[in-house]
Input
Amino acid sequence: MSTFNVLISREELAKKTKELAQRISEDYRGKELLLVGVLKGGFMFLADLARELTIDVSLDFISCSSYGNATVSSGVVRILKDIDYDITGKHVLLVEDLIDTGLTLTYLKDLFTAKGCASVKVCTILDKPSRRKVEMIADYEGIVIPDAFVVGYGLDYGEKYRNLPDVCSIVSE
Ligand code: IMP
Output
């Protein structure tokens, strides 16, 4: 049985999610907003964020993986599942679990800009700014965490622990 240390509780996550949703609802009122969840890690945050919004939105998902091992991003991003919609003229908000080096979102922002959407912004529930390899500032930034490997609330280690409701460090496996 694995043991964990809770770093960010589900209550803190819910409070921050609500704050972000309020700002997003105000900023995009009257606009056509497409939320794009970055799979797999972003699934839980996207589900919670979407339910706190007070505006109509469309939803889509993109799945990508960076080449590298379980704990180190290599910076080379591979698209495993692209979005389904034509996004020309739409306002896109990329919804991510965690910005680490910033390489994934830099790649995705460029990709979406090239697809011709009206705007591309980034929302993340967790941020490790101390780990950046490229400049990436989230338009809607959640909770800043120190440089430690975390799991839960969508985040995995070797595909495990995504279902934990809190953000945790692994004590023993
Ligand atoms: P980056 O910003 O391109 O380095 O990559 C961000 C992605 O790497 C996140 O969306 C996570 O999927 C993964 N990642 C980065 N740090 C962690 C961590 O501490 N635990 C689990 N996944 C992580």
Observations:
- The first helix runs from residue 10 to 28.
- The chain has three helices and eight strands.
- The beta strands are 3-8, 33-39, 57-66, 77-81, 91-99, 119-127, 140-144, 167-172.
